[in-house]
Amino acid sequence: MSQVIARADADSMPSVTTERGERAVFCGLTSIIWLHRRIQDAFFLVVGSRTCAHLLQSAAGVMIFAEPRFATAILGERDLAGMADCHEELDRVVSELLERRPDIRRLFLVGSCPSEVIKLDLANAATRLQGVHENRLRISAFSGSGIETTFTQGEDQCLASMVPDLPAAPEESQRLMVVGTIADIIEDQFRRHFAQVGITDVDFFPAARADNLPSVGPGTRVILAQPYVSDTVSALVKRGAKLISAPYPLGIEGTLAWFQAAAAEWGHSPESVQEALAIPIARAQKSLVKARESLQGRTLHFLPDSQLELPLARFLRDECGMSLIEVATPFLDQTLMAEELKRLGSEVSIVEGSDLDSALARVRASRPDLTVCGMGIANPLEAEGLRTKWSIELIFTPIQGFDQVADLAGLFARPLTRERQLEVGSWS
After folding, report:
1. Choosing a second label site near 132 at 20 to 30 A (CA), which of 201, 215, 305, 423?
2. Which domains are present in the chain?
């Protein structure tokens, strides 16, 4: 059964329908794949089942010669039945791990569905283990369970677990903190662009090194590179930080408005920012032309999966000329999405949550040119002749900023281009 609640906002804002029913999403353990690539001296120890281990191994695609920085402490039948002391076993596994890998600077204990079902308190275990190992590294815990959340919310839980460790910033210090995991190459580009618009005191959270923790305080201005960090933002605001309301740096318009919102806090006008970034803007506009030809006029349906749906929909409609049938997202934080909602406008149909049967029925009825969805849903839709794009690919791929605009559009153009090539090939 689905529970549908329609709520109408201001005239210029989209109406939002909330659905409750069956979902089909990855669990938060998947976030470890991009987090462990970003925080290069951290280790993620999942306390879970063999299924958790298989998921991580297959999702990561780790080569046999690689030394991974994640593992699974397997909960066996005796653990699940309460016949063994899980904490004793966890202490042993952590001690063996740190003896083998003395290079680890931060250890995350990651909860899973099985560890949460048996009420294993990993937060207290992390505090205790940090004392046992004499504070030579930071140990914290977060939940990667998929019982109630989608896969990107694992990152939110991870970053929120780090906020208590951030040092306090002096009250007179004004710095910008970019929150959300991005690729190293995008951090370099963003630092360069911030310097061009006159902002030099910039921190990125998370950083590439676990010990590189940004300070936070009343002078901290937070701007988001990713939209799925609600709990992290709340924790930073409690520490005194101020959230900058901005669209997300996806596409030319979104990226420019993102830099303009940040620069406004330092007293720089939108015109000066556009002038300072004129070269990368022109380069992005030129690179987008070819991909736009494949996307112009095509219809698009987003099924709820990654929480990137709203900013992606805005980019594909406004800059690529696609027509939006429905934009569904697993969770809608209207504070973090305020600027995106304004840009989408009242004509867009937005669905929060999911009732899988109803959602698939609407896709089959409208038969869009492209459906953005999870991997488990994509194959059945492809078998029915509907073209799809895996939403998880948008998390693994660098897509933020001016220099990635053509790559971002290309992710959506390729399924449509492939379809045309197959049609031509079938007649040749």
Report:
1. 215
2. 5-24+280-427 (3.40.50.1980), 28-149 (3.40.50.1980), 175-276 (3.40.50.1980)
Q: Please report, in tens digits, the pLDDT of each residue of the chain (428 residues total).
A: 444 333 334 457 888 999 888 777 778 888 998 999 899 999 999 998 888 887 787 776 654 445 678 888 877 555 444 444 577 888 888 999 999 999 999 999 998 887 776 778 899 999 999 888 888 899 999 998 877 788 899 999 999 999 999 999 988 889 999 999 999 999 999 999 999 999 999 999 999 999 899 999 999 999 999 999 999 999 999 999 999 999 999 999 999 999 999 999 999 999 999 999 999 999 999 999 999 999 999 999 999 999 999 999 999 999 999 999 999 999 999 999 999 999 999 889 899 998 899 999 999 999 999 999 998 899 999 999 999 999 989 998 999 999 999 999 999 999 998 766 555 444 44
Tokens 């890998």 correspond to: 101
Total-model pTM: 0.91
